[in-house]
Amino acid sequence: MAKISFSIIALGISLLLLETGAQNPKKRLATSKPPKGQCCDEVRSLKVQVANLTSLLAELSQKQKTDMKNVFRQILELDKQDQQLEGRVTEAESKYSEINNRVEIMQLQTLQSATQTSSDAIYDCASLYGKSYRISGEYKLPKDEFLGAPELSVYCDMETNGGGWTLIQRRKIGLTSFSRDWKQYKNGFGSIRGDFWLGNDHIYRLTRQPSTLRIELEDWEGQTRYAEYGFFTVGNELNSYKLLIANYSGNAGDSLRYHNNTNFSTMNRDNDKCVDDCAALRKGGYWYNCCTDSNLNGVFHRYGAHTRSAEGITWYAWHGPNYSLKRVEMKVRPVGFQP
Ligand SMILES: [Ca+2]
Fold first, then answer.
1. Which segments does the entry list as coiled coil (predicted)?
2. 36-116 and 2-23 helices cross at what angle (nearest 10)?
3. Which of 109, 138, 181, 278 is deepest in the core (most CB within 10 A)?
4. Using one digit for the tens of pLDDT, what is the confidence trace for 58-92?
């Protein structure tokens, strides 16, 4: 405010100088001592001008005060509006979070009711069997939005020991390499009608319900054996797909017990319980301990016997560490499945 007043005064003075200078420049230059009457007239006129300017200044100063008041009032008004807007935003935010909460509760309720009425939903080959699909072959499981699981092609065994089995692994042709990295074992690889690994994420999804694992083996002489585990579950990726099995039955011998409670390892992820790198030595992805009592994702050796190393598709309890099996199938089914 002081600054503005000062500028106005300066303006007034310069106007005054300009006016007196411009009014009679010749006269001033020409006569250094003007006559008495003329001098008094000039003083009078200057006085009038000063008075006029003073009143103008007072007027301007008054106007400025009013303007400042108005500006101040406007600022207060804006501030009030701002507070109101802020209040509305807070209100909207709390409403949004409330709606979010309700959506979460609804999702949980839907998930629970879906689990309760599991006879309607299709989770695996057992669900399909329950819907009277009785022919073994390739089926599509619908995507599971709650688990974030995409649509999935599976092979269903609808015949063995009552059917309803979802295959998680098969070895029979021998052209697909099983020496793969973590990501490939995570997502799965191979052909669902030939040799494949379903994928650790999918196996995790399938074994979220209490599950049975059945392993079927065949040697190059055409003999078959099986091992069944009444309890089978695989952790999620954060838990390195840790294997938990129990309740063995069968005629192949229990060559998975040694791998119980171990994490999954691949060529680029050594999670085994050994100073050695088992996945590299055994050339597969598996729940390696230190290292194997079975190696179902090992190297396919035609005609079984091999002496190079214990890298074949082995089940020690049946054919030992140097005999690669001709055929393997690993399959899961919910515990308490009724054919
Ligand atoms: Ca190791």
1. 43-109
2. 150
3. 278
4. 999 999 999 999 988 998 999 899 888 888 888 88
Judge whether 60 lies within some domain: yes
CA of 268 to the centre of ligand 1 (A): 11
Q: 88 C-alpha vs ligand 1 centroid, how far in Å? A: 59
Q: Is 3 part of a structural domain of the chain?
A: no
Chain center to CA of 311: 37
CA of 266 to the centre of ligand 1 (A): 10
Residues 98 and 241 in one domain: no
Residues 306 and 239: their CA atoms lie apart, in Å, by 34
Q: What is the pLDDT of residues 181-224, one digit of tens each?
A: 999 999 999 999 999 999 999 999 999 999 999 999 999 999 99
For the chain, the domain total comes to: 2
**Count of all residues that appear for the chain in the document:** 339
Same domain for 134 and 100, yes or no, is: no
Taking a C-beta distance cutoff of 8 angstroms, is the pair 233, 259 a contact?
A: no
Confirm whether 141 is domain-assigned. yes
Q: What percent of the chain has pLDDT over 70?
A: 83
Q: Cβ(276)–Cβ(289) under 8 Å?
A: no
| Residue 79 resides in a domain | yes
Ligand 1: centre distance to CA 278 (Å): 6
Considering the domain architecture, whether residues 256 and 314 belong to the same structural domain is answered as yes
Same domain, 226 and 328: yes
- Residue 257 CA to ligand 1 centre (angstroms): 19
Neighbour tally for 291: CB within 10 Å: 22
Structural domain for 224, as ranges: 130-334
Global pTM value: 0.66
Q: Tell me the CA–centroid distance for residue 269 and ligand 1, in Å.
A: 9
Candidates 151, 119, 143; CA nearest to 132 is 119
Place of tokens 């055994």: 282
- Does 319 lie in the same domain as 197? yes
**Tens digit of each residue's pLDDT (9 = 90 or more) over 112-164:** 555 544 557 888 999 999 999 999 999 999 987 776 778 999 999 999 999 99
